Amino acid sequence: MKRWAVGLVGLGAVLVLGSAGCSDAGAGAGVAGSGTDTGTGGQTGTETTSSSETAADTETGDPADLPGEQPRPELQSPAEAEDLDPDPNAVRVSLTAAPLAFEIGGEMVQGWAYNGQVPGPTIRVKRGDTLTVEFHNGLDTDTTVHWHGLRVPFAMDGVTWQGQAVGPGQDFEYSFVVDQAGTYWYHPHVDTDRQVDLGLYGVIVAEDPADPVPDRELVVVFDSWNEFSFDSDDESDHHGLDGAVIEWTANGLIDPVFPAAAGERIRVRAVNVANAGYVALSWPQMRHIGGGQGVLSDLREPASVVLVPSDRMDGEWLVGDGFDVIGLPYSLLGAPAVDEERRLFEVEVDTPGPGPAPLDYPFDGAEPTPDPGWTDVLYVFHGDPHTGYWTINGELFPDVTIETMPLGEWGIVELRNVSQSAHPFHLHGHAFEVLSIDGVPPEVRRVEDTLDVAPYSIVRIGVLADNPGDWMAHCHILPHVDGGMMTVLRVE
Amino acid sequence: MRGAQRSAAAVLGLLALACANDGPIAQTSSNTSSESVGSESSDATTQTAETETETETDTSTDEGEPIPEQIERSVQVLLDGVPLEGAIVIQGGTGVVVHTDADGRALALIDTTIQGALVLMASDERARTRAHVILVDDDSELVFELESIEPGDNEEYLFNPAGVPENMGTTAECGHCHQAFKDQWHASPHRRSASNPVVHDIYAGVASALADQGACEAAGGQWWMGVVPGSDQLAPRCYIGAGTLPDLNENCGELDACDGVATSFGACADCHAPAIDGVVGGRDLHDAVGTSFEGGVHCDLCHKVESIDLDAPAGVAGRLQLHRPVEVSPSPSVGPWKPLAFGPYADVPNPRMGASPRKHFLTAEFCSGCHQHDQAALVPGTSLDPTRWPDGVFPAHSTYEEWRAGPFFEIAPCSSCHMPADPSLGNGADLTADKLAMQGVALGWLRPPGATRQHTWVGPRTPASGMLQLAAAIFIDKSLVDTTLTTQVTVRNAGAGHAIPTGEPLRSLVLFVQARCGDDVLTAIDGDVIPEFGGWLDRKPSPEDWSVWPGAAIGDVVRVVTVDGWHDYEGFGPFGDGSFDVTQKGLPRLRVVGQSQVISVNGDQVGFDAPLPAGDVAYRGREGYFEAGAPLAAAAVAGAPGFGFARVLADEAGAQMVPHHRAVDVVSDNRIMPQQEWTSTHVFSASCQDPVVDAVLVHRAYPVALVRERGWDDAQQVMVEVSK
């Protein structure tokens, strides 16, 4: 959250404000509503509880880590949206974007929220459901809802390229079939940098009937705030990249506690909604089961998983003892940074015991598609944090050259990054397969909708252009989008 | 958690720690100087300064009592005793700036939660940056007494060396504290600018690879005594071909070497050896010895550039305005002169550097100091054609102007691509995570990701960087009608912010194209070819006798082309702004006719594997990229299916691809500008229904003829290779 998200209406002074160049004690991540396991929710922002009110246990953890020696808040999944449609194959929810005063890190801030909660209500569907969202714009400005990672019809994509925003006080009904499973999210696609930063985001859980059922799920949304954001003309310019994160929140909470019991098998669905910050997640015996487009081709057991802005990961916790979920220092350079580790939250187990056996997720072990070697569409990224301009093929959105892919054909898109910042490339309307990164193909088939392109690297992806429309293709570091790094890929 | 309470903040003067291995000091200050961190104010109301000793200071108001996370300090900044308006006041480690008012005063907010020392600094371009350590229980006004940097450039100053890798050296070397920068720079082309043997070969007219008299004279050279580059030693060397000294000086080069005799130096040293001590500008490259030779463009040179004069010629004493300190050192231990270094940051108060901020360090204008070189005719008795070059100069090196004319002007300056960020370092003084708590005046401040930029200057001369591979892209379209395969191969400058190739005009790009059915290579029957700058061993226009090729060898290839008018293209400057018509753009449109390979040689008579077809011109060359199995050495391939891109300089005699000191014209310049592309067409006779087209683009550093003459190790680099 940055300098526009101000307006302190109260002060709890729990969070130590960072020392960055901006004073933006902004909104963007509030205290989540409750309702982890109920599957329904829709609690309003006025009902969100402060950290002290939701704290469940003040006797655990290192007292030295306690912010202001306040009880640590309890981490819960965001409340879920109520399904208004009795049809078991349809989900109808109501969604309203409106201003909301909410608390973050002990400070009350004026932000924006869906259905009065930040993160917004989690929308839960199953693969094949028709999802209908009755959206109302309660803001005083245009907005839309974009369904990040879902293959929706172009008219439902929530972009204003050849479309209209939802005006203040207006309604719009989004409706489409969800033919995917996995963890997705929704957010505005108008003035995105600001509107997401103010708190407009929520998670979509698309269940797959083929997946095993865990004992419970945790939906956790990571957001960053108090980023560096230097004015390039200011002598204070340290020539860094915008978006260097000072603090992270999990469902709006700083370093909360997640109570768990030994023997539980928990599917954690993590989403990074930060405008610019990368979060490198790490916890003991990490089992990485799902990515941006559902269950992975094989189980991964890395030491950490980097979530780039807009990225998702599903993990499986086989709870035996408590552990910390750590954010490793990571920078927009697509590499570890010089900084300290920070605990994002703690999984707390009162009575440790043996961990359960893992669930049998349907990893298919699919081989990657061979790279044919030629290129149909080339996107090259340039830019500079000092100027604030970021280009694709030397062009600043909206003055772009529209590349076209024939409907129904498999095409090769090459992504090159000739800048010092990494760029998480996001393509609307389509998933894509990673063919190679710097010439090295993945070990197994890897399907994404957002993929980080590290500085000076070349990434090649394959796209089955099966969804007609003018699809936005852009970096998901939102200040970079503001700086021009967006283009249009036409499928016709 | 970050931002731990500073209940008993340990403020360390870290100079001694950071500079523990001090050795003999040439000109740098000692680690006991007290002028920068400490206040020199005699005002009794001002705060007492920290000295630069390794002293722990309790800044709490009471042991164990937390101090506020933010405190205020009133400051005043004076310049030569006069209140300074607009001065920068900045706390180390925060990046937060306030500016002083008309009274030189400002209210600074101090974040006490940062790790490391609490330090406020005052900075202004007219002075060296100074610092005060903050004592949290002393809220008296801080007074910064800045002193104006004395104007003028000191020719008596001796540049400090950077140091060498794997040796910490002493504080006399910049690399003692900036080890990562030193290592990066040492592997960079900038370090080799003065010692590059190719530069010296061209400068003196030498082939240093021809190291014995026999080889030299067999190649047509003269075995004369001359200067050994980088030394004051004389030794016999092989003088051959063009050279700056023999070409520019009429009193030498015929009977003996020009080394030590020449008086006209062509301003080569102004950029290639800009750190020759003494008078700047107009120096003999052979004056470069010691640091100026081994270090080339080094730390102390760049960080002595005070300003940029875009109207001046390239190099030091021209566009790059040097300022070597003229103030006498306050102490013999810091060397003879008061340290002075210009850099991009306002929060560098280390007295060893005497830093003063300059914004030009991250601008393209700084790079233009040498990477924009407009040149007049230099060889005595020659001149430029005023109808082509009305300003009396032609662009020899124009990377800066190419960038200005392209889409990245005001978007991404040179450093955006050529100085990658280094996330492994917290700052330029090698601050790492395990030293975060030690940040301060000496070790510097933790900077945000991206702030620490590698001093590598990646590009074509750093192959591992992959910059050439990022720069260009190839797209292939093809169509097959009956047995005729027509393919369009498009080369796009996708990644570079300037033309490709750029810089040294001896460079070129060569595109090789072939088609095949399986492993059977198809015969090219029409289409574009590699221009003459692709190199030839012999050239014969029709109707000369194409059965006679003196010097031919078995395996040589003779390629026959027709000349079909001129290529029109959008190049740099007059080649793209409408000034030149298609003939003035000077690139003949050559088309494939056919080729034959030499299978027998009898004197000057040769026999071919197939009769040569009729055409306008025949070039004798060598096998190209595909036939020779992807050779990395440049071969003479003019006339082969493909294309090429170069700025072609010509001398008074019409010879092309000459070193720029000899040039009097840019004959053609079809280099590809940023985000522009060029499509060539190639036609083959196909023997299958699904032929494959191969296209390879290579980057050549030097033209074939020059490589052969000088015996250079000419490593071509593949930029992109595509088959479809």
Automatic annotation (TrEMBL), chain A:
The protein's superkingdom reads: Bacteria
Alphabetically list the UniProt keywords: Metal-binding, Oxidoreductase, Signal
This chain belongs to the protein called Multicopper oxidase
PROSITE patterns tied to this protein: MULTICOPPER_OXIDASE2, PROKAR_LIPOPROTEIN
Q: Does the keyword Oxidoreductase apply?
A: yes
The record's annotation in Gene3D superfamilies points to: Cupredoxins - blue copper proteins
GO MF, any single term: copper ion binding
Give the signal peptide, or none. Answer: 1-25
Question: Where is each Plastocyanin-like domain found?
Answer: 107-210, 377-491
- Pfam families listed in its UniProt record: Cu-oxidase_2 (PF07731), Cu-oxidase_3 (PF07732)
Protein's organism: Enhygromyxa salina
The Low complexity compositionally biased stretches are 45-58
**Stored SUPFAM superfamilies:** Cupredoxins (SSF49503)
